[in-house]
Design brief:
Elements (H helix, E strand, L loop, with lengths): L3 E3 L7 H11 L24 E7 L4 H17 L2 E8 L2 H13 L4 E5 L6 H11 L3 E4 L21 E3 L2 H19 L6 E7 L4 H16 L6 E6 L4 H14 L5 E6 L2 H13 L7 E7 L3 H6 L6 E6 L2 H18 L6 E3 L3 E3 L13
Parallel strand pairs: 1-3, 2-3, 2-4, 4-5, 5-6, 6-12, 7-8, 7-9, 9-10, 10-11
Antiparallel strand pairs: 11-13
Helix pairs in contact: 2-10, 3-4, 5-6, 7-8
């Protein structure tokens, strides 16, 4: 019986395993055996305990991720401690040190900000325990993963940011093509936390895919947000005020929070759903609009199963600890585009 503890109060399928293998080797060249800063490669004798430290642990995606991690830990019969770091960089270091002091066998982490990454990696290395990141990248040698050599990136489990953004951009272009809108009185809003590497990857992927899918030249407005609905909403409302002549809007972002908040900001500013093409990334907020029958402009969303990332991360750490299996530099879970009429078919709940 596994021991699962939540401080915040709360078998890979063959297809998934294949997707992860392909994702880790997308270059067509043999991948390095492991990411940087991952501790020793020794097997662990005796009981296995893992600390899973998450930023924004009350966000729906991360709640789902934690649930998947719990399920996998239960299957494997290991102890799992899940900690909500919020957005607190100082707490991150405190909790990493606490996880080490509590003799956890390994640490999985989603850092609140990339700048804290090098210290996290240094603490794990000093303690000699494996470190694996999920979702966001961590560089062992500097605060910006975008400026980091591949050899200095900690092994990561999550999704391909470029690929996800590409799916969003492709769908947005397809939705735009249905509208008959004049590009001259249309604007594209890209909203994301601009110091987060995976977010920038998603936005770049969306931009490239929009063009590749035949999307016309439309003036783009890039908004730096805190990746929350309220933050995106406020920025978009101000943007509408500054662009009174614009009739139609396309909204893309790093996550569902940015797109949902952006769509709501447009609605609050008097823009009707018929004049909005919103394509979310996550679907956990978009589904609420569809569930309620809202016609607010949220046309589609890319479903990213956080629970599968949690399962994969725990499985990868278990394999490292139990069998000495090295981490792949990156492992990717599959995604699926959904809309109002299909999201239930994807098999996820909408809470």
């Amino acid at each position: 019986m596994s021991m699962i503890r939540y401080r915040r109060g709360a078998a890979l399928t063959g297809a998934l395993a294949l997707a992860l293998t392909l994702g880790a080797c997308s270059s067509g060249k043999p991948a390095p055996a492991q990411g940087a800063g991952t501790g020793t490669g020794k097997k662990t004798d005796g009981p296995i305990s893992i600390a899973y430290l998450q930023k924004q642990g009350d966000q729906e995606y991360f709640v789902s991720e934690a649930a998947g991690a719990k399920k996998k830990a239960d299957e494997l019969g290991i102890k799992l401690t899940v900690v909500n770091l919020g957005n607190d960089a100082s707490k991150t270091i405190t909790e990493v040190k606490s996880a080490i002091a509590q003799k956890n066998s390994g640490i999985i982490i989603v850092v609140p900000e990339s700048a804290v990454g090098p210290q996290v990696a240094a603490e794990a290395k000093k303690a000699g325990i494996p470190l694996l990141t999920s979702d966001d990248q961590v560089c062992v040698s500097g605060p910006k993963p975008t400026a980091c050599g591949k050899a200095d990136l900690v092994a990561r489990v999550g999704f391909s940011g470029v690929q996800m953004g590409g799916e969003v951009g492709k769908r947005a272009a397809a939705e735009f093509a249905k509208t008959g809108w004049n590009p001259a009185d249309t604007r594209i809003v890209y909203a994301w936390k601009q110091d987060t590497t995976v977010c920038t990857d998603r936005i770049n992927g969306a931009k490239a895919a929009w063009k590749e899918a035949g999307g016309p030249e439309v003036q783009a407005i890039e908004l730096g947000t805190d990746n929350t609905p309220a933050g995106a909403q406020a920025k978009v409302e101000a943007t509408v005020t500054a662009n009174q002549g614009v009739r139609h809007w396309v909204v893309m972002g790093c996550n569902d929070e940015n797109v949902s908040g952006g769509v709501k900001g447009l609605n609050n500013a008097g823009v009707k759903g018929a004049d909005i093409v919103g394509v979310g990334l996550g679907a956990y907020l978009a589904c609420k609009d569809w569930q309620a029958g809202a016609d607010n402009g949220m046309k589609a969303a890319l479903y990213i199963p956080g629970d599968e990332v949690g399962k994969l991360a725990v499985q990868a750490m278990y394999d490292r600890l139990k069998n000495g299996t090295e981490f792949a530099p990156e492992a990717f879970a599959p995604t699926r585009m959904v809309e109002a009429g299909t999201w239930r078919d994807a098999g996820f709940g909408c809470k």
